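Per your request, structure below.
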């Protein structure tokens, strides 16, 4: 039955491997804040940093920070805008978090280890469908 499709199991495996390669080669890593990393104690403009880049599904945001002073919260947009930290969508605290962007959409990140909204470490990224380019 399977042979009527004209593809051996080996060919199928090869195609899966090619697909995996394609996926890997079209994903990029971005260190948030570039060399400055993720910190509230900077004049680095994270909004401008994000505006200058093109993020697509499968890309990875790497947040590198001092986890005694910062963290990474993913917030609902309305919560980001009003600085409501009661209910983060997600919360990372390792100091070196690689966050893969699995969905297209608009995502809002903020640092608030002390539950206050005083820091400059806040960024929102628009994620586009993966068009296969790097
Ligand atoms: C950061 O950059 C954005 C976009 O260029 C700009 O609108 C904003 O005013 C800047 N913020 C500061 C504090 O300079
Ligand atoms: C913050 O968000 C929560 C839901 O997550 C809501 O119950 C609360 O009223 C909000 N607080 C303010 C000040 O808007
Ligand atoms: C984030 O996670 C840490 C460790 O699990 C926790 O102590 C902290 O309260 C959390 N912050 C928020 C805003 O949920
Ligand atoms: C962060 O973790 C990645 C591996 O996930 C590693 O390659 C990188 O060197 C780490 N960076 C820092 C500053 O620890």
């Amino acid at each position: 039955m399977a042979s009527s499709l004209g593809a051996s199991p080996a060919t199928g495996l090869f195609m899966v491997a090619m697909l995996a390669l394609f996926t890997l080669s079209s994903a990029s890593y971005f260190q948030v804040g570039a060399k400055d990393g993720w910190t509230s104690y900077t004049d680095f403009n994270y909004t401008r940093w994000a505006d200058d880049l093109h993020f697509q599904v499968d890309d990875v945001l790497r947040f590198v920070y001092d986890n005694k002073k910062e963290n990474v919260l993913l917030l609902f947009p309305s919560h980001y805008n009003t600085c409501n930290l009661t209910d983060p969508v997600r919360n990372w605290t390792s100091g070196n978090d690689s966050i893969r962007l699995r969905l297209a959409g608009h995502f809002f990140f903020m640092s608030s280890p002390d539950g206050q909204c005083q820091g400059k470490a806040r960024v929102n990224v628009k994620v586009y469908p993966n068009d296969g380019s790097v």
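The first strand starts at residue 29 and ends at 31.

Regards,
D.
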